[in-house]
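Why does residue order matter? Because the sequence determines the fold. Keep that principle in mind as you read this record.
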Amino acid sequence: MTDCWRGPTSSARPASSTGSARSRSRKGRWAEVRPEGIRLLPWLIGAGDLVMIALTTVLAINFRLTLAVFDTATDVLDNTALASVFFGATWLVLLAFFGTYERHVFGAGTEEFKLVVNASFFTGALVATMAYLMQYPLSRGFFILYFPIGVLLLLVGRLVSRRIIQRLRSAGHFNEKVLLVGTPGYIGEIHTVLARESWLGYSVIGCLVPSDYAGLERTSAGIPVLGVIDDVRAAVDEHAPDIVFFTAGAVSSSTQLRRLAWDLEDHQHVQIIVAPNVTDVSSERVRIRPVAGLPLMHLGRSRSQLATNDAKRAFDLVGALVILALVWPLLLAVMLWVKRYDGGPALFRQTRVGREGVEFTCLKLRSMHVDAEARLAELEARDHVLFKAADDPRVTKPGKFIRRFSLDELPQLWNVVRGEMSLVGPRPPLASEVEQYEDDMLRRLNVLPGMTGLWQVSGRSDLSWEDTVRLDLYYVDNWSMVQDLLILARTVTAVLASRGAY
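Structure:
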């Protein structure tokens, strides 16, 4: 095999048995350069789970002894104190067994939360079965309280840890070094995504390209070319990446990919990631089914129809009514402030396009001067069909405040009650925007528009038009109730941080 690998020394070396011996001798060096924080991350998450389980035990015992719905029993504390130690240890073991401490589940996706819930339910079933078979005098009240509280606290703890991890990764900590492998075009696409989503913790150190590009020093995206694909082992030895990322077009056959994987099999800490030529598809729609040695990828149908089911409608209706019951004093106070500021109406009514192109009147607190529509022609749209300026002179003093915390959206709860909008969904577009939609963008109209959505929790007005469309289309095609709940939770932090709000 001809070696044209170029490293920092810039001298070419033959990938012969000498190179293999050099690779084996560098295993010790490999352990030294691996970031300690990445290896400690599962232990830190486990320590957080232990704290949550300990807190669960204290709360469950306290509620069992103090709540009037339970009978008083003098032996509750003695029986549960010993049992809780076993419960906690079993819970942690099963959390590890279900894979909740694997590095790939931290920081993104819903798999981590699903695994925590599954491990918790299995723990509850196992504990109940063993207590019954051993005839242990376990307090049923304690058992009923223990696991629901524990599941809730574990999920809260994981959510908090995820936010901390994402912030640390965005600041450059807990990052994993990535070596991209493939053609320059595909490498550029993957690099753009990884650079944009810095919270994923992937730091691209360079790339390997096919031999046709052997003379290339940098890709058009500015990524250093460290060699050709056949020299993947030499590049791993020299640069010690945490992840070797094979993009589409990286290999010409499955046999080549298998041989490249064999070259890396003695690097136990290197993760191999293969990106198929499929993007913006959630894991819930993907099924891998091995058939005759072929890992066939089955893609489920778009979930846009599920996003209009009765369960989501019931959730929207109950959620909107509950929120209205909680925030109506604040809403009334802000409406009076807007009204008294310049004497204009408190509410701003604007025609928006809803599901299947049906127009409706969208309600918002007025954040601009009453002649804002007439002054629109004085300003230039700055981002495709989506117009929202950070320094718009038409915004009033109250408007700046209510926009900062998205209070102007609260009247849309009435649109949700009326069935014209949803709590979570794509951004409700103007008719003028829809007229400029391309065919792909029209899929945004397959579901009800939302008060919040992926665009809201990903940067709001700081996003480009292309990113807004991409996020909305992803939501339409990959809807799930779990995703809605996560978006609502992230909305709270996005609003408090005022990211992209103007």
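Residues 175-277 form a domain with the Rossmann fold fold (CATH 3.40.50.1980).
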